[in-house]
Amino acid sequence: MELSISSSDRGNRATISRLLYKLILIFCCLFTSPSKSADSKPPSRIVSLNLCADELLVALADQSQIAALTRYARNPDMSSVSKEAQSLPFTYGGAEDLLRLHPDLVITSSYSHAEILPLLKERQVKIIDLPLANSLTDIVEQIRIVALAVGHPERGEAAIQKMEKALRTLPPPMGHGRTAAYYQRQGYLSGTGSLIDDIMKRLGLKNLANSLNKSTLSRLSLEEIVTYHPDFLIMGQKSYSTQDIGSQMLQHPLLKKALPASHRLFIPAPLTLCGSLHYPDAIRILDKELETIDHPSR
Fold first, then answer.
1. What are the backbone angles phi and psi of residue 223, rounded to the nearest 5°?
2. pLDDT tens per residue across all 298 residues of the chain
3. Hey, CA dihedral for 195, 199, 202, 204, is it positive or negative?
4. What's the predicted TM-score (pTM) here?
5. β partners of residue 127
6. Phi first, then psi: what are they for 126, rounded to 5°?
7. How far is C-alpha 254 from the geometric centre of its chain's CA atoms?
8. Of 207, 202, 198, 135, whose CA–CA distance to 173 is shortest?
9. Which of 69, 128, 205, 223 could cross-link 200 (Cys pair, CB 3.0–4.6 Å)?
10. Euclidean distance between CA atoms 265 and 96, whole angstroms
């Protein structure tokens, strides 16, 4: 038997379908809108367990959003935001510390505090793993990640534009293909893929570590550095404590004779520890150091 459907039946079914569709939309709005709203709400208690994240948070987040920076943030030998950090809370990074802070966003690094991550995940705390930024591209990417996470992406874009403008106004590089080595305590040398390596390239300097096929971080003895004799040593500070055993070799008479003050470039350590908004400053400082050596009368 053939089933026939009148036009009035079809009209009624269409009306019912439209009503059902509207009911489904209302249902979806009622039960999905709150979660979307919660997801888009900026975090109000941000904790940094990453020295490099400290600087980005100070620049991109509201102070009221920062529940704690690292304990290193206040150390001027390590942090570019040590002055700003004096008035901000800090954490030692222990589990008990974190529980008391009740964070809704934690910025950390996979190479540290690994034992705390399961605790945070159990409490459904948002976690951002921020690895080392070893180039301008890395820095720009991290600025955008943190700016978006703290709810101020426009601040991130403004910071990037400011940094790019500063790079465009830098003077011509003064390296002229000469060789340099970033020589640190205990004879550590920064090689291919490091932030200082990237900065050297922009200055027109050749990294001795690359010529020796050294890894990102390696060691070179006092005798070796004197034998290879780069045109310049790049160092983190102009004087070191004689009581610091790790730094004694940097004050060794043999090294001072081979590479005296006229062959040494100095840059504040915080500018090389983290890829940051101060990237153009690092280039400018070393460029000025080179100019002073090449043209001491200026």
1. -65, -40
2. 333 434 444 444 444 444 443 444 334 333 333 333 345 789 999 999 999 999 999 999 999 999 999 999 999 999 999 999 999 999 998 888 898 999 999 999 877 777 788 888 888 999 999 999 999 999 999 999 999 999 999 999 999 999 999 999 999 999 999 999 999 888 999 988 999 999 999 999 999 999 999 988 899 999 999 999 999 999 987 655 555 666 778 888 999 999 998 999 999 999 999 999 999 999 999 999 999 999 887 6
3. negative
4. 0.81
5. 106
6. -70, 135
7. 36
8. 202
9. 205
10. 43
Give the number of residues written for the chain: 298
How far apart, in whole angstroms, are the C-alpha atoms of residue 68 and residue 92?
9
Beta strands in 95-187 (DSSP E): 105-108, 126-129, 179-182
Find residue 129's DSSP bridge partners: 108
Distance CA 7, CA 122 (A): 58
Beta-carbon count within 10 A of 249 CB: 17
Tell me which DSSP letter residue 183 carries: B
**Which element (helix H / strand E) includes 24?**
helix 7-40
Paired tokens of 285: 């400082």
